[in-house]
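Quick entry, no commentary yet.
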Amino acid sequence: MGNGRLRAPAFLVLFALSLSATLAGCSDSSDPLGVEVTSESGSYREISVAELEPLVGDADFVLINTHIPFEGDIPGTDLSLPFDDLAAHLGLLPDRDARIIVYCKGESMSTIAAETFVANGYTDVYKVDGGMVAWEEAGLILEK
C-alpha cells in the first residue's frame, strides 16, 4: 500500500464488472421480435411463446386466433378469424401498418393466415411458433 497506487476494494471491482455485464446484456428496444420468415407472399416474423407472454394485454398489437374449430384462446386475444376466410374479414382490422400477431392450435393455420395478411399488404405480421400447443406446454392457461 505504500507504493502510491490506489486500489479499489474487491467488492467495488466485482460490482463494476457485474454492472457492465448487465448493461451489455440489455437489448436495444428497437430490435424486432422473433425471426424473419420469407414466403412467396412476402415476409413476416415468427415469435416464441416466451416473447409473446409479456406482451399479452398490450394495446400495441392485434392478437388473432385463426384456428377453426374454436379450441380456446390465448388470454388477451382480440379476434377469432377463420384462417381460410381472412380476406372477407380484413375490414375488421386496423390499417395495414398495424402490428398483427396470429396463432392457431399448432402452426399450419396461422402460417396460412400470416401469408394471407402479407399478401394483402400488411407489413407488421407475426406468427406464434407452436401456437396454443406451445402456450400450454409452457405451463400457461388458455381461455376456453
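second:
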Amino acid sequence: MGIKVGGRLVLEDGLAPGRLLIEGSSIVSFELDPREADGPFICPGFVDIHVRGWGCYDAMGGEESLLGMATSLARSGRTSVR
C-alpha cells in the first residue's frame, strides 16, 4: 500500500492537476484529477552539480557552514549536491 500525494504536477509538457502514488522511495504511478487544481506544486528535486557556497555559507567553512549551506539549498528545491 502506497501513499498518494495530490496537487499540481510539474510534468515534462506543463502543469496538470493530479496525484502521485509513492511506494517506498519511488513514484510508481500518477493519475490526473481536476479536483487537485488548487493543491501545492509537486515537482522533482533538483541536483546542483557545482556549488562552492550558498545562502551566505562557504563550502570551505567547516561543519557548521556546510550544514547551513545544505539547509539553504534544500529550501530552494535542491535534494542533493555533487
